[in-house]
Amino acid sequence: MQNTELTRRAFVRSVGAATAALAWPRLLDAKSAMASKPNVILIITDDQGYGDVGAHGNGMIVTPHMDKLWSQSVRLTDFHVDPTCAPTRSALMSGRYSNRTGIWHTIMGRSLMDDREVTLAEMFKANGYRTGMFGKWHLGDNYPLRPEDQGFDYAVRHGGGGVGQGPDWWGNDYFDDTYWRNGIPEKFEGYCTDVWFREAIRFVERNRSRPFFCYLSTNAPHGPLNVDPKYAKPYLERGVPENMAKFYGMIENIDENLGILRRRLDALDLSRNTILIFMTDNGTATGIARRAGAEQWQGFNAGMRGQKGSEYDGGHRVPLFVHWPTGNLDEGRDADQLCAHIDVLPTLADLCGLKKPEGPRVDGTSLRSTLYGDTDTLRDRMLFVHSQRIAHPQKWRKTAVMTERWRLVNGAELYDIQADPGQQNDVAAAHPDVMARLTAAYDQWWKSLAPTFSQYVRIGLGSDTDNPTRLMSHDWLVEDQKDSSWHQGHVSRGHLASGPWAVQVTRDGRYRFDLCRWPKHLSQAMRCKHAKLKIGDIEVEKDIPLHATHARFELDLKAGPAMLQTWLTNEEGQQHGAYFVWVERL
Fold first, then answer.
1. How would CATH label the architecture of 459-585?
2. Global pTM value
3. Which of 102, 270, 413, 507 is most buried, taking the most CB atoms under 10 A from its CB?
4. Upper half-sphere CA count for residue 197 (Cβ side, 13 Å)
5. Domain 383-452 fold
6. Residue ranges per domain, the chain?
7. CATH code assigned to 39-371
8. CB 479 within 8 A of CB 487
């Protein structure tokens, strides 16, 4: 009792008597709820922007279940992520700025998260939770970077950054696809989003008697825009451009699944003590019409400038709803403090009473006081987002330095976001003091990131848990994106490029390398006449028959880091890398 009173007095001193009078009872209720360890379901959709939700003012899209969740949640209305997929996910998982984790792109070997990061899953698992992930991972498809290596007890996922990309199962098209269940490929029936929610619900059902963390990460509405025509048809009939109609249809399907999930939580009597979070990974990809006719719907971006990939708010300000009835976070209220993806991990640690395992220092801060009505704390924050998407990060490239009032863009443009939320009026010349302050803060932040620029996140070879391992050209470290063979389409066309993989030989031994033009299970002739492999200082090559499905080399390797690169010469004498390489420790 004495400790509680001391804590209350400290809270009063930190936020003031008036705020404390409102917030303290809720904090006590939440603390009591923590004793029973709330479950956590974190839903993140792919490429859905702030304006792609009906409750945010979009009069075209139909999202009744998202709208209902919005009405029953605390909504973080100034919440920011990175402008693209993998960087956001790494920051979300680690509580750290994405560059620190080794990620600043979605391909080119720069979408692999360092295995030394302590993930949300590792934190929950260390505190007695069962952990499951479903859908899009996009932080590495090989040991030690897979979700099952990074704290998840159970995972059902596709490969790469999207269904149909190079690391994904060959031929997947969103319908009746093959995904990986705990590292083993398996054929699933149904539409991809339906599969992720169905598998997540089954995970919840199996673990309803103990606390669980469920990470439900849809690949929809990311392209390709494949969806049952019944979802797109109503939008086409109302004058929505074709691609946007498909995009909206994919979101409507997610919305239906959200409703199914919530009804099942009610039936299992889990709704009240489950923290349910809904968010998205970057600004809208297809929710703004670029070439629509005057008679067509133009899309809705909630008055913001920019979209996916942009340094303006439309590229990185996204929805985040938090719903937790037992913790009194279900009243339907906006919280407008500046916050970001890096805050989710420390916030969940705080709400659930978790101890974070030893590891790198997080950049984020707990938003607990904000969620419980403190309107003063965190008002003076400064946050950073950027979109690099190149081999080597460049200072000020597509960057926003953010405070509650200001946005410094690319080191040159300044916007008063409160007076000018559409970022139309550059006021840099009128505020040299603000420019200097935000620039100095960015310089310090950039300096803190610099050590990662020359480092590589490496794929492990020879691990007992991933042997053989399958490498794919999606993760080649190339200097220019035009040389990245990251998609199945590049493989089909025989894209003339090659690059190295950064690998870590996990132990001394003899290793077999099968260099392939096509996925191995297709047993398809490569139509190549020569193969070459180089790993570290070892270089081998040989002629092969055109009908061969692979070129095989066996080498004795010492444990340690290396660069691995391959070349295949086709029957026309043109050279490209082996898009797939299977490496097995014998």
1. Sandwich (2.60)
2. 0.93
3. 102
4. 22
5. Arylsulfatase, C-terminal domain (3.30.1120)
6. 39-371, 383-452, 459-585
7. 3.40.720.10
8. no
Q: Residues 304, 52: contact at Cβ < 8 Å?
A: no
Tens digit of each residue's pLDDT, the chain (586 residues): 444 554 566 556 656 665 666 666 666 655 554 458 999 999 999 999 999 999 999 999 999 999 999 999 999 999 999 999 999 999 999 999 999 999 999 999 999 999 999 999 999 999 999 999 999 999 999 999 999 999 999 999 999 999 999 999 999 999 999 999 999 999 999 999 999 999 999 999 999 999 999 999 999 999 999 999 999 999 999 999 999 999 999 999 999 999 999 999 999 999 999 999 999 999 999 999 877 677 889 999 999 999 999 999 999 999 999 999 999 999 999 999 999 999 999 999 999 999 999 999 999 999 999 999 998 889 999 999 999 999 999 999 999 999 999 999 999 999 999 999 999 999 999 999 999 999 999 999 999 999 999 999 999 999 999 999 999 999 999 999 999 999 999 999 999 999 999 999 999 999 999 999 999 999 999 999 999 999 999 999 999 999 999 999 999 999 999 999 999 999 999 999 999 999 999 9
Q: Which residue matches tokens 């990460």?
A: 217
Q: How far apart are CA 477 and CA 498, in angstroms?
A: 9
